[in-house]
Amino acid sequence: MNRYYNPVHTIHGPGCLAELPALLRRMLSGGGRVLVLAWSREALRHPVLADLAASCAPIEVENLEFTASNPTVEQLYDTWLRTKDHAPDVVVAVGGGSILDVGKSLCCLYGAEPADVDALRARIAAGDLQPAARWIGVPTTAGTGSEVTCWATIWDPEQDTKRSLENHDNYAAAALVDPELAAGMPVRLAVSSALDAVAHAVESYWARHTNAVSRALALEAIRTVMGSIDQLFAGVPAAHDAMTRGSMLAGLAFSNTKTTACHSISYPLTMHYGIPHGAAVAMLLAPVLACNAPAVQELDALLGALGVADAAGLQRRIAGLLVRSAQPASLEGWGVARSDLAHLAGLGITKGRADNNPVELTPALIEEMLKSIYPMATIPCAG
User: Cis peptide leading into 287, omega within 30 of 0?
Assistant: First the structure.
């Protein structure tokens, strides 16, 4: 049975950040407290954010920068400590996926009062954290789709794992997807972010938990991103509009399905070797497609949206985009030691992602996938 649900009030278009004050006044008509969590001081200088306290009075507004990528459990706990006395009713998260993940996570920490980092780990693992505040997502990159999902990735390198904080009551109250905020991204970041969005859509399409609505959204997301991604290299302004739209559509798609093998296998590559998330999942798209192809319904529609004939064609297309954006297209190029592949393969089975893949994953199969992109060579499991 197909089911789809997403309650986020989603607004997309150039300049739509200007709607933030009115949104907050409606949400907090009797007054309240807002935390603006932004990726930089520069972001807080945006006219809408700089004037937010005045335009929303008597709502109390507090600003906080969060500059880390791939937020850790320790960083999340520290941010909660720094903001809990403000006790915000609404968190406005302005930035890339890391900022959005921290913003939505904070909403589940207010009222939880974890005694220390270990207590927070235990609560995340138990899945019993309930939101005590609402949040608004304002993405400044085009790739994660985090503004329309109810889960957050929190990294825990101390325990060599990736944690997921999720609650279906923690969807954003609203998402303001303004392509003007993403227009300043360097090409390297713009490309890797866009490929992350493609991975979200592709994995949503073939996930065990896929549904008809998610598949339709996924195909449109893929067509939108892959049809315009080359324009990023030429600096075409419309490309950023397409990337933000595609990312949002991909987020809406996988908000109901979660991701699969590409994300599961990519996590240790990012944690241990610092490979940017978008590049890591992008390199894995082709080998995972080759393995999953026999189990993918309406495979031709997926390949058509990607603009390729098969997994080998997708591998060439992804490699070309990475190289053109000055990023390695192989694990060797990112400095991964070949002797580490077996260990990385063992870490690549992530609960909730690996078991959502249409083909069962094993460490041996994952190791073959990793070998195929170290350096890029033949793709395993074809046909």
Answer: no
